[in-house]
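@channel sequence for tomorrow's demo:
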Amino acid sequence: SLRKKLEDWQEYAPVPLIVAVDEEGGTVARLSSLEEFRSEPFDSPRQIYFDGGLAAIRTSESEKAQLLKRCGINVNLAPVCDVACTESALMADRSLYQPPKTTGKVIAAMVKTMQKNQVGAVLKHFPGYGSIELDTHDGKVTDQRTMSELEEYDLLPFVYGIDAGAGAVMMSHLTVISLDATHPASLSEKAIHKLRKELGFQGVIMTDDLQMGAITKNYAPEKAAVQAIQAGNDMIITGWSEDLYYAIYNAVEENEIPLDQLENSVERIIQWKMDLGLL
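structure tokens (generated this afternoon):
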């Protein structure tokens, strides 16, 4: 049925692209920080929630989505589901800095507001950085949290976001021992199994940027890209598009990546585009 819908659409027009941006607000405001697009950047969700609660969050997310749509952007790489509880945590400013359940309720409101405005939500950074202080932009970061700690604390906002209908989840480059002691979550079949099979997420899964130090200092780019797809990611984020495209293409040709897995990923992406009203 999905394939037939796509074939019917292609008779009239090419398949529209996913156009995404990091517009969390606060320290990560790629669009609103430019005066050409907004007089001042959006505040961080942490500050907005502190000042005005859920009502202010909904208003801000609606304004944000409308700005993105005017600029031809249909996906926001947000909201941040990480639960930080110390000011020294890497995600202290970018997180809501609230307990897990409160964070989850705010995440759900953000996702629903984005959906109402037909802007795709990407829950990040699975399985959550928690109070980790080191930055995976700089190199490998290993986390000792137990599985029970993850399930009782860090995974809750993702569950709320998934239940609210988020179309995508971004995998972090954090190596969480209780999930996979060998690979970062972004390249880990075990981590993605946790998300798919135990949390029941059926949407699009993508990596964080493969040009971050946790990857580049430990993997060749082509190997990382292939391993990311093999692990179960549907999309990868990278600026090395051409070389990695051919690495993945060759891996499919050599059956290192099963064709049916690739087709399943394509179907999930197409379904996301349909849900966003692009098809």
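heads up for whoever presents: The mean pLDDT is 94.
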